[in-house]
Amino acid sequence: MMETLRVLVVEDSEDDLLVLKRRLRLDQFDVPACGGLEAIAMVHAKDPDLPCIVVSGQIGQATAVEAMRAGAADYIMKDAPGRLAPAIRRELVEARSRRERKRAENALAQERELHAITLRSIADGVVATDTEGRITLMNRVAEALSGWDRRDAIGRPLREVFEANHDPASWGGMSATPWYVARMTSKLN
Prior knowledge:
This protein is mainly alpha-helical. The chain has two domains: 14-105, Rossmann fold, CATH 3.40.50.2300; 118-188, PAS domain (Beta-Lactamase, 2-Layer Sandwich), CATH 3.30.450.20. Helix content is 52%, strand content 8%. It has eight helices and four strands; from the N terminus they run ααβαβαββαααα. The strands form two sheets. The chain has a two-stranded parallel sheet with strand order 1-2. The protein has a two-stranded antiparallel sheet with strand order 3-4. A hairpin with a 5-residue loop joins strand 3 (127-129) and strand 4. The chain starts with 13 loop residues before the first helix and ends with a helix.
């Protein structure tokens, strides 16, 4: 199945535009009255992730660098038309990858926010450790139970944080000793 693309073509030569139209099988086209750099700026103002490929017959190195800095994904000389289709394919794959990565990052951010809300609302002490037994996460209730500020406890061994406070009164009436709680939490990992 052939994928349909929307392509913005900025071309100063009508003959070259017709050749490009045939090569890309463009159904309709309009050429805005602007240059390549302005076109890149217009496209990226609408969607920074849309790929822009500059095709030029006389682009110099300085202009090519300027186009790349402006956001062009590639530049191709008109005398090398065989590079155009692979460049378009590559940019479509990269654009799809950027969209998927952005979706994954957004999903991860939402998951982290849900995690943080859940952790704040749990009425029990919650502590997580890495495989070495060092604290990686601690909620407010665990702070109160241990007497440690979570910023100070992160990275420390669980046993150190929970054995540091042996006063049973600070455990809110819990009958467990800090070591027992630390052992129970370790088994969860």
